[in-house]
């Protein structure tokens, strides 16, 4: 596997843009929502056939739920990895269902011993069925549970220690959570297990009613790009995919997307894909 690069999340609306990125196959990578792969888009399979590194990114597994993960959802993730020849699979440190009800949104896991035990169980159940490593992503959240017993960095470190999972570090989430909690984003970043990074997300956001929202539809902020530089300087992980731009709507002109990818590459000191 080649070294760290810069990529963009694959979406049908971005299929032509991704296809035409000259350096994506050689030095970059992409990511696709795993739940969209029940009927894979031909353009995505063509990208795979060109040798691109593509990561299936799950959003519905509910690793942080009290109930065991559903075997058919784990099997789907494993199938996605096999279909794409993926180097790894990623999912969220979150829950999306409880008591048989689908929430329809990623919700934060209480940082308690009991919740950590359930999360560890579900990560182990998942990794036992995957043929590739699993990376877990801490989410952006507007609230913390009042019964939290761990700081987020300590919670993540113990989770990875007990499961062998890797970290999908979303620097935009770090910035959003720190802003909304009144914390220093750099100190939050430094508390994370940066020696376990599989790859990183970078995304835009906006402020509304006193909160910073991780929207994936706005331009990148300089503060987030600065965290990219800090994350790159502090990561000691030997094998990383690099940094991936997340865009999920209100897509700007291609020139603006290329400029954002170049800005990420420059912030990380990596080769541009454009």
CATH topology: TIM Barrel
The CATH H-level homologous superfamily: Divalent-metal-dependent TIM barrel enzymes
**Regions with little confidence, pLDDT below 50 for 5+ residues:** none
Largest pleated sheet: 8 strands, parallel
> What is the count of helical runs?
10
Strand content: 15-25%
Tell the overall outline.
Answer: globular
Strand order of the largest sheet: 3-2-1-12-9-8-7-4
Organism: Actinocorallia libanotica
Pfam families: MbnB_TglH_ChrH
Protein name: DUF692 domain-containing protein
Short description:
The protein is α/β, with parallel strands linked by helices and 274 residues long.
Can you tell me about this structure?
The chain has 274 residues and is of the alpha/beta class. It has one domain: Divalent-metal-dependent TIM barrel enzymes (TIM Barrel, Alpha-Beta Barrel). It is 38% helix and 20% strand. It contains ten helices and twelve strands. It has helices spanning 15-19, 24-27, 42-49, 71-84, 113-127, 152-163, 171-181, 185-191, 222-234, 254-268, and strands spanning 5-9, 30-33, 54-57, 89-93, 95-98, 101-107, 134-138, 166-170, 197-202, 206-208, 211-213, 242-245. It has an eight-stranded parallel beta sheet with strand order 3-2-1-12-9-8-7-4. It has a two-stranded antiparallel sheet with strand order 5-6. Strands 10-11 form a two-stranded antiparallel ribbon. β7, α6 (152-163) and β8 (166-170) form a beta-alpha-beta unit. α5 (113-127) packs parallel to α6 and α8 (185-191) runs parallel beside α9 (222-234). The longest helix is centred in the middle third of the chain and has 15 residues, at 113-127. The chain is globular. It starts with a strand and ends in a 6-residue tail after the last helix. The model has no long low-confidence stretch (mean pLDDT 95). Pfam families: MbnB_TglH_ChrH. This is DUF692 domain-containing protein. It comes from Actinocorallia libanotica.
